[in-house]
Write a structure and sequence with these properties.
Layout (H helix, E strand, L loop, with lengths): L8 E7 L6 H11 L20 H6 L6 E7 L2 E7 L7 H10 L2 E7 L6 H12 L4 E6 L8 H11 L3 E4 L1 E4 L7 E4 L4 E4 L9 E4 L5 H16 L3 H8 L6 H13 L3 E6 L8 H11 L7 H8 L4 E10 L3 E10 L2 E2 L2 E5 L4 E5 L2 E5 L2 E5 L1 E2 L4 E5 L9 E3 L17 E7 L5 H14 L4 E5 L4 E6 L2 H15 L3 E4 L6 E4 L3 E10 L6 E11 L5 E5 L11 H12 L12 E9 L7 H18 L2 E15 L3 H10 L3 E8 L2 E9 L6 H9 L4 E11 L2 H16 L1
Helix pairs in contact: 1-9, 6-7, 6-8, 13-14
Bound molecules: guanosine-5'-diphosphate.
């Protein structure tokens, strides 16, 4: 592939809810542009951009992969993104490096949740949008209903540039409202439509939508507006210019339509990408001066390719990236050796010597660089703003199926974390569990599948254990612990009296008020040690005991038989007895939770929080969303990512962190104690 100046590059992401046809559309764009000889099909598992086993198996896109190709003297870098909310991290990364988006909307299903979510992201980032109403060939396809649905649910001025001729089984082409020509696709005619005049019965519809188009185009440009208001007709070129401006300003969304599966309407969409979406750098002069700057590139995805190993995708922002060069990772201040630069076309890769500013490519086998980092020429300290990934909050506990695989597991997890910024691993010191946190069930499933397939580590998964604790409610005095074994040989003798009392703001305190050496000084550390160890396992359900003060008040010793060990055991005995007398209770961890949801879900969210024993602390508007603050027992929150998704159809977000421990209600405590008793009995 030859090098393109940035003015002739278009970087775009194909985005939508899962199933709208993003992968099929990307496939059709490649085919229509002549980059591939065959139109692959998602249902046959042979598309260019979905080639990972986990993608083919599920027929969903999991990884954003660029499909770069040339068309009409331009280079298009098309990022086929995932539509499933578990993989929204890859959408966010794609949005960071493109200048425009193609939204795919199904002519049958209309606007779906994830489309709305990504549309809002596009609004926040002011990204230009072109829309494609896909699946016009499907039964129940209805262009105008879907258009109305888009106008109702999405922002911006949404105006058709093409309208369909026929629908579902009768769908045979489109009318270009700019040129006033009909493009008819003969069945089986491939990508080349026949241009004809507009069928008579469409005349009225055409003039109605041409009027809307003219108005939208005029409103984006003062000169055009003046002309328009004076009643003059705008020429196709003027309309195109106005549209171009309106799209760039993020005000107008031109709508195209067709069938990705049958390669209908794709040529017009290709042309609109070049005509309506902006290049990475908007003037040729500017592009030239940016090309002369030192290198600055941003990495936006790391992937383990089955053939070349670790692949890093990057966008050159300034300067030129060259094959076989040394660069600096300015985030980490480490040198990286860049080998062969590749232009990606899904599973196919083409070697190139260099990529200029605005272009997108990949390089294999970088050592230290992860996603969202800056590669510069040596000496250039520039660091570009990274990528703001969402925080994963669905946790499972995992452990290797085979004993002894612990190291293998942690190495494999480290590798997966390098590739996936929405995955997190936590060691819970209290429950001693390894927790894997992901964006949703499918994300976690796929991660476990990859652990097995790529690293040969099989794991078992379970719900994370709740780190309960125990404490006491009343003080007790002079509780005795005596450890005495004096039969034959060297005996053992330790003897203590302790006071215990609840302690408000501290986990543990130890004091001694020994008078006259009743417990000799050298054994006192052993007493404290015995108590600390005993506190690790409470008497109710075996959880750590906290918020307790222990005072060693008295005891006795034996000049020969006493030892540190004997005093440790005596202290532990005393402590367990004291706990029993001091009204022990179970504490449960309470989380501080912040939930962001659209207003209409507030009632359901609050109802659900109540059923989870939550306390609502406050609610306030937060942009278009409502923010709810609550305190909820952790035990109820482990699957909240799933519940929230179900209640809000994926429109909600939440953040949770540990707040404090509180006494568990008796029904909860009884259950936990009973379970611990059963577990102990095996
Ligand atoms: P994505 O999840 O948005 O990438 O959607 P896919 O490209 O995977 O397509 C989802 C399903 O819709 C697949 O079964 C496709 O074959 C089908 N599909 C995609 N585009 C069309 C189309 O234009 N017409 C019809 N009839 N089916 C389509």
């Amino acid at each position: 592939m030859k090098a393109f100046d940035s003015y002739h590059i278009r970087n775009l992401a194909v985005v939508a809810h899962g199933g709208a046809g993003k992968t099929s559309l990307t496939e059709a764009l490649l085919f229509c542009a002549g980059a591939t000889k065959r139109l692959g099909k998602v249902d046959e598992g042979n598309t260019v951009t979905d080639y990972f086993p986990e993608e083919i198996k599920r027929k969903v896109t999991i990884h954003t992969v660029p499909a770069s190709f040339e068309w009409n003297n331009h280079k298009l870098n098309v990022l086929d993104t995932p539509g499933y909310s578990d993989f929204v991290g890859d959408v966010i990364a794609a949005l960071r490096v493109v200048e425009g988006l193609v939204f795919v909307v199904s002519a049958v299903a209309g606007v779906e949740v994830q489309t709305e979510v990504i549309w809002e992201m596009a609004d926040e980032r002011r990204l230009p949008i072109v829309a494609f109403i896909n699946k016009m060939d499907r039964e129940n396809a209805n262009f105008f209903n879907v258009l109305a649905n888009m106008r109702e649910r999405l922002s911006r001025d949404i105006v058709p540039v093409h309208i369909p001729i026929g629908e579902a089984g009768d769908f045979c082409g489109t009318i270009d409202l700019l040129t006033g020509k009909a493009l008819i696709y003969e069945p089986g005619s491939g990508s080349k439509p026949v241009e004809t005049s507009i069928p008579n019965d469409y005349a009225e519809q055409v003039s109605q939508y041409q009027e809307q188009l003219a108005e939208a185009a005029a409103e984006s440009d003062d000169d055009l507006l003046e002309k328009y208001l004076e009643g003059e007709r705008l020429s196709p070129d003027e309309l195109a210019l106005g549209l171009h401006k309106g799209v760039a300003q993020g005000k107008v969304v031109p709508v195209f339509c067709g069938s990705a599966l049958n390669n209908i309407g794709i040529g017009a969409l290709l042309q609109s990408i070049i005509d309506l979406l902006p290049p990475p750098i908007s003037s040729p002069e500017e592009a030239k001066s940016i090309a002369e700057k030192p290198l600055g590139a941003l990495t936006f995805k790391t992937l383990s390719d089955p053939y070349v190993g670790r692949l890093t995708f990057f966008k050159v922002i300034e300067g030129v990236m060259r094959s076989d060069s040394l660069v600096l990772n300015s985030n980490k201040q480490t040198e990286e050796k860049v080998g062969q630069i590749l232009v990606m076309q899904g599973k196919n890769q083409f070697p190139v010597d260099l990529l200029g500013p605005g272009d997108i490519g990949a390089v294999a086998k970088l050592q230290a660089t992860s996603t969202g980092e800056t590669l510069t020429s040596k000496g250039n300290q520039r660091v570009f703003e990274g990528i703001d990934f969402p925080e994963p909050n669905l946790a499972i506990a995992i452990k290797p199926k085979t004993k002894g695989d612990e190291d293998k597991l942690s190495n494999a997890l480290a590798k997966l974390l390098e590739e996936d910024n929405t995955l997190k691993v936590e060691k819970n010191l209290e429950t001693k569990e390894t927790l894997l946190l992901g964006m949703g069930e499918m994300h976690l499933d796929i991660t476990l599948e990859r652990l097995q397939r790529k690293f040969g580590v099989e794991v078992t998964q379970s719900s994370p254990k709740v780190p309960y604790r125990e404490t006491i409610r009343i003080p007790v005095k002079r509780v005795e612990g005596k450890h005495k074994k004096q039969t034959g040989g060297h005996g053992q003798y330790g003897h203590v009296f302790i006071d215990v009392e609840p302690l408000a703001d501290q986990e543990f305190a130890f004091e001694e008020t020994i008078f006259g050496g009743a417990v000799p000084k050298q054994y006192i550390p052993a007493v404290e040690k015995g108590i600390r160890e005993a506190l690790n396992e409470g008497i109710l359900a075996g959880y750590p005991v906290t918020n307790i003060k222990v005072t060693l008040v008295d005891g006795s010793y034996h000049p020969v038989d006493s030892s540190e060990m004997a005093f440790k055991i005596a202290a532990a005995l005393a402590l367990r007895k004291a706990l029993e007398q001091a009204k022990p209770v179970l504490l449960e961890p309470i989380a501080n939770v912040e939930i962001r949801v659209p207003e209409q879900f507030m009632g359901d969210i609050i109802g659900d929080l109540n059923s989870k024993r939550g306390r609502i602390l406050g609610m306030e508007p937060d942009g278009k969303m409502q923010l709810i603050r609550a305190q909820v027992p952790m035990a109820e929150m482990y699957r909240y990512a799933i519940d929230l998704k179900a209640i809000t159809q994926g429109r909600g977000q939440f953040h949770m962190e540990f707040g404090q421990y509180e006494e568990a209600p008796s029904n909860v405590a009884e259950k936990v104690i009973e379970e611990a008793r059963k577990a102990k009995q095996g």
